[in-house]
Design a protein that fits this description.
This protein is of the alpha/beta class. The protein has ten helices and eight strands. An eight-stranded parallel β-barrel has the order 1-2-3-4-5-6-7-8, surrounded by six helices. Strand 3, helix 5 and strand 4 form a beta-alpha-beta unit. The protein binds 3-methyl-2-oxobutanoic acid.
């Protein structure tokens, strides 16, 4: 088994697992000291390209951003999202997962869904591809108004069954997105593998956030997003100082000139 995955599995019930997204080298380089997992998520579609859906992210985009992100990762486990329509059947999934791993040296891929994609996950595992699951809100298939998952008893039963099925078929961890607090706790307790929550309460084994949200670069009003810093303010300050010095002919001084 991949040693980094082994390390992550050992953290269950001992210490929280830290996961953040990165789409580029410099961000990975900064995060890598603090993270266990760096995810090149298809959230890059909305965050970087203002797409209205992650469905518009294609394989080439995720590979190019992952190649850049890879350059800054030394110790964290690198997981790459398989974009929409790249795993419609098992052969397509294997071909594309292999391509992602070949070009990005990712440790694992992440796929959205439970029972619906279980044969695909089985096939990837049979071919030694490390897989992270993703349950709850599934941005690649989500339709209509946003609503957290686990409201009805049927939905709760299905989600717990899906989580157990994913575990049985070899995923090493599952992202739980926007799952009701007590259900996230129940799923986390029922599994031997770690759950990584986003909008799914403190009860998960780890937490993931989109880094652009974390640092206040991406402006969003989503309930579960806490912005831990105001990087916009600092970028603005640097740009203002640059502007002032250029206007006053202070920059570039002789020190910065040939
Ligand atoms: O695409 C992404 O960044 C994700 C995380 C939000 C879990 O899937």
């Amino acid at each position: 088994m991949n040693l980094k995955i082994k390390k992550i599995l050992k953290k269950k019930n001992k210490t929280k697992i830290i996961c953040l997204t990165s789409y580029s080298k410099n961000i990975s380089e900064i995060l890598d000291r603090y993270t266990d997992i760096i995810l090149v998520g298809d959230s890059l579609g909305s965050v970087l390209y203002s797409f209205d859906t992650t469905k518009k992210v294609n394989l080439n985009m995720i590979i190019e951003h992952s190649k850049s992100a890879r350059l800054g990762i030394k110790k964290s486990l690198m997981v790459v999202d398989m974009p929409f329509n790249t795993y419609r059947n098992k052969n397509e999934a294997l071909k594309n997962a292999k391509k992602i791993i070949k070009y990005t040296k990712a440790d694992a891929v992440k796929l959205e869904g439970g029972k619906r994609i279980i044969d695909i996950i089985k096939y990837l595992r049979k071919n030694k591809i490390n897989v992270m699951g993703h349950l709850g809100i599934l941005p690649q298939s989500h339709k209509g108004k946003f609503r957290y998952k686990g409201k009805t008893s049927k939905e709760r039963k299905n989600l717990l069954e899906d989580a157990l099925l994913l575990q049985k078929n070899g995923v090493f961890s599952i992202v739980l997105e926007c799952i009701e607090t007590s259900l996230a706790k129940e799923i986390t307790k029922a599994l031997k593998i770690p759950t990584i929550g986003i909008g799914s309460s403190v009860n998960c084994d780890g937490q993931v956030l989109v880094t652009d949200d974390l640092i206040g670069l991406n402006l969003t009003s989503i309930k579960f997003v806490k912005s831990f810093y105001d990087i916009r303010k600092h970028i603005g300050l640097a740009a203002r100082k640059f502007k002032d010095e250029v206007k006053k002919r202070k920059y570039p001084s002789t020190k910065f000139s040939y």
